[in-house]
Automatic annotation (TrEMBL):
InterPro entries: NAD(P)-bd_dom_sf, Sc_DH/Rdtase_CS, SDR_fam
Species the sequence originates in: Brevibacillus brevis
Top-level taxon in the UniProt lineage: Bacteria
Signal peptide from the UniProt entry: none
Family: Belongs to the short-chain dehydrogenases/reductases (SDR) family.
Stored NCBIfam families: PRK07231.1
Name of the protein in question: Glucose 1-dehydrogenase
Enzyme Commission code: 1.1.1.47
Amino acid sequence: MKALAGKVAVVTGAASGIGEAIARRLGREGAFVAVCDLDETGGERVARELALDGGRGQFFRLDVSREEQVSQVLQTIAERYQKIDIMVNNAGVGKAGTVLEQTEAEWDAMMSVNAKGAFFGCKYAVKQMLTQEERGCIVNIASVAGMDGVLNRAGYCASKAAIVGLTKSVASDFAEHGIRVNAISPGTVDSPWIQKILAGQADPEGARRQMELRQPIGRMGTPEEIAHLVCFLASSEASFITGSNFVADGGLTAR
């Protein structure tokens, strides 16, 4: 029996990187996956390819920073598939800069997608889950940047710290209703975003090695490793876990 057979999962930012890996992993474990993203080409591809892995999915175009869109898309998914068991708030953006360099527009963009997007996702997932006999769970993708100071990432650190705080608050408010809410804080993960950053360096290979060596484990994480943790938190094996922030960073914050 697959761990998530019969479950309905929603994953935001699912067209690539960590979100894509999460969607694929949940699909392989038997969940129907609503693949949500602004990237229609990537999102449609992921939804199609879920079937090749033995899963099922459908793409929904979604801008997580727009409350009316989040409300409407989650309502459509719930009506079409009768429930939402798993909500993964993964969509995120980042822009380098200290507080002296970060513009208001950059700050607003990161807070809108990262923090406000998770807020809307939690709000409308909880609203639906409260109507269900089997409540459900939420997993928010934060970052070690939301826990420790990361050089040159003022707005990003602030937005990810907000997700950790939001997670604990929602978990506390709705634990008695049977809704579990947890966060995952990845370290450096070899994703399209990291690859884009490296491509812009004078010495991409040297920069990659520096990123790898920041982790005591000696390498970057993979999107699939984060997806495995999401799958665990979404399963019945994590039934006593809520309000926690799980760090998956190869030992980065330990050092």
